[in-house]
Amino acid sequence: ADTGEPGSVRGQTFSRILRAPADGCVEPRAEIGDAIAAGQVIAHVNGQPVTAAFPGVLRGLVHERLPVTAGLKIGDLDPRARREHCFTISDKSLAVGGGVLEAIFASEAVRASLTGAS
To answer: How far is 10 from 37, CA to CA, in rounded Å?
Structure first.
């Protein structure tokens, strides 16, 4: 069930999520895969810093100059601090992707286009 709370990774839940402190555009100060120290500035939004609550690896960050609203999720920090996790597909992502493919191929229109039937 979707609890609305991120899963715990090394005791971190909500603190893993990076949120925009203000409306504005994201100005990154780090890149995905970078080792991040606690308190380090990861980005700025409208001149306000987005800082790391704990040490880890920057696992995600929205595109530079993307307009965002205050409170919007703009990235995440991984406390496991393993860079390779940034570039692999999780079991959860594979399951979601597989479900989407099954739904697409279950569609009559898709089956008809693949077989040439109309």
So the answer is: 16
